[in-house]
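pipeline/complex-builder :: batch 7 item 3
reading input block
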Amino acid sequence: MDSNKNTDFRSGFVAVMGRPNVGKSTLINTLMGQKIAAVSPRPQTTRQMQMGILTLEDAQIIFVDTPGLHNPHHKLGEYMNKHAAEALGDADLILFVVDGSESPPHEEDQILINLLKELRTQPEVILAINKIDRLDENELADRQKEYLDLYLAAEPILISATRGDQLQALIKLLASKLPEGEPFYPEEQITDLYEREIAADLIREAALIHLRDEVPHAIAIRVDEYTERGDGGAYIAATIFVERDSQKGIVIGKGGKMLKRIGTTARHEIEAMSGRKVFIKLRVKVRKNWRNDENSLRRFGF
Ligand code: GDP
Ligand code: MG
């Protein structure tokens, strides 16, 4: 046997699923200790598959952030659900996150449970009841029972992604259930691999923060250039796509003010994520009906 091989090492993919706003991105960010997935007080900002790679002494956990379940009333919704189902079926484990502060359990949780039952492979499911910082003891016991009744799973794990409750126990539990094997990625690769995608997500996030309800979900981001600069910083050029001319005006704002604000927020977030100085150049383009155009969805990487 190869003496370099550590046979005790475990490595694998954990699909993080749950309906929008239950705290999946927050959980991944807290587990990773850095900003990887976009977090928003509003649902549905995470449209792309994102990964956080957590490398421990004896395990590597690769988190796949599946987009929430939507009514597939346009092609984007269909696309997301198809990708979500694929990611779930390919995973070694599924981490099913629900919002413990809501009572009774949401009917969409039942829809997700049904979706799980239809998968061609049946990875083991860990049920995490999140936001327990909002519950007292009685509510906690109630919620645990309600979800046990709903899901018939093994004992759920009670966590708080923001306060940190039980997160070490969760990591231990996940790691113990992964298959034995070498790590899939070298440790340094954690952010390198996805920096472009993460940057696109953070730009979208910044746009949604500043635009509020004016241009709801009609924007897509394409990173055109992401290059290292001599001084250790990065240069990012990105295009914000909107569906209508009127939206273009809103995104640019009077004298370019709005676009500037979006760029500044995005720059701060990307600098915090990558730990280096960032220069961002944003432009806005109209692409009519990009949401219903399969080709452009593919081009955007959805
Ligand atoms: P996602 O759509 O499932 O990825 O949800 P997000 O991670 O974007 O979180 C949605 C909202 O729930 C955000 O406002 C988070 O701050 C909040 N949130 C997430 N986890 C917790 C938690 O453990 N406790 C509380 N009180 N709020 C949380
Ligand atoms: Mg999210």
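note: The chain has two domains: 3-177, 195-299.
queue -> next item
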